[in-house]
Amino acid sequence: MKVVKNYLYNAGYQVFLLLVPLITTPYIARVIGPTGVGINAFTNSIIQYFVLFGSIGINMYGNREIAFYRDDPKKMTQSFWEIELLRFSAIILAELVFFAYLSWTSKYHEYLLMQSLLITAAAFDISWFFMGLEDFKTTIMRNMVVKVISIILIFTFVKTAQDLAVYILIISGSQLLGNLTLWPFLRKHLVKMNWRKLNLWPHLRPALVLFVPQIATQIYLVLNKTMLGQITGVTAAGFFDNSDKIIKMVLAVVTATGTVMLPRVAHTFAKGDNAQVQRYLYSSFDFVTAASVPMAMGLAAIAPKFAIWFFGAKFAATNTLIMLESPAILVIAWSNVLGMQYLMPTNRNRDFTVSVTVGAIVNLILNIPLITFFGAAGAAISTVISEASVTIYQLYVVRKELTLRHLFTDIWKYLIAGLAMFTVVYWLNITRPFNLVWLLIEIGAGVIIYGILIVILRAKILKQVQQLLHR
């Protein structure tokens, strides 16, 4: 029941995160325009490399280590401080490299400085500790309060295109503040320890092993915006950034299972219950398939008129980008289950690393010709193909211990229901005037059609739902 509770907490938070951009993004798009959105996306993509370098795989590694040792308070306390001090050291080095970069580049200095608060914020990010404990309530409630404060500040102080630096400062500053507010909660979980026994070095190598896949992941999450900014211009980066935001907002609700299940599976694996680990995986895979198919197809169906209504007429190009990138929701959901809920918690680090490295290489190779010839549309296509390559490789490496047919037993049912839903919603979208009322009608129609067909086809997800209701 704890897994369900944590998922509801996390999914609820992801819905909240979904609502925040629904409130702020249309306002920001209209106030600072495509160029401002593009500058923010481009400079943020650069800063993320330094954040990545300073994090050195700590979030995934720390989450797993705390999950392993949470039944031993002394060992857990020592592991926490060793891992956190290792991160502090890496962040200091990342800050030094950033200022060296800043002295070398001549563009967007002011915006890069505002964004650099995110590097400092990463040093104080201890959410991995609470996730390892499966204490999602603490991090979620804190994040929600900070987000609400940031929304108020945005509407209060960001009024014109000249306030772009203020907007960036609010976003990065709220991240730092949010991370700092978690520290007082440590007192409930940590015990006294002998500081002389601290030894950072045993954590460096395993953290670096997980750092490699994060580098690869970052390439195809951020490199698109960096390359668009360099090859096509920051405006194209702004178009892609907005379409990518919509995809990631929808995807976050599905991938909430990965955040919840990683520590649970790691703890189960540590106890040697491999059969239960597999049962978790099959259930999660079916759940994310049932949820991501209608989300991907529904988003593609409303895309033709959504961007102009949501972002404004200047962002009309985003319509096509959302349709092109929407299949990524399904393949990322699958790779999230296979990678974050199976390979990672069961110490299959090498396989996970190779999978995301494959995706990064595919993305890098495809980006150059596709962005050069098709601009932001090329970046969207490249994203889908690279994410699919990650999933295909992960399916390949787990083929001997998992029954692939079992994973995909009911996919045809979800696809039939999804296609029927897409057809109706797409027809409504292109034949009716688009406004908030019709958006809600389209979403409602899609949910009803998909739900009815899932019941008629007797998909496995219904059994999961029944089991949850009777607990």
Task: Sum this structure up briefly.
The chain is mainly alpha-helical and 471 residues long. It has one domain. It has 19 helices and no strands.
Question: Would you kindly provide a written description of the structure presented here, covering whatever features stand out?
Answer:
The protein is mainly alpha-helical. It has one domain. It is built from 19 helices and no strands. The protein has helices at 2-55, 58-69, 73-104, 109-115, 117-123, 127-132, 136-157, 164-180, 201-231, 234-270, 274-311, 318-325, 328-343, 349-374, 376-397, 404-407, 411-431, 436-457, 461-469. Helix 1 crosses helix 7. The chain is globular, with a radius of gyration of 22 Å. It is a multi-pass membrane protein.
Radius of gyration: 22 Å
Secondary-structure element order, N to C = HHHHHHHHHHHHHHHHHHH
The chain-level structural class is mainly alpha
Measured by DSSP, the beta-strand proportion falls in: under 5%
The number of strands is 0
Major β-sheet annotation: none
What separation lies between the terminal Cα atoms? 7 Å
Number of domains: 1
**pLDDT average, as an integer?**
83
Helix content: over 70%
Q: Could you name the ranges where pLDDT drops below 50 across 5 or more consecutive residues?
A: none
Helix tally? 19
Query: What best-fitting shape do the alpha-carbon axes yield?
Result: globular
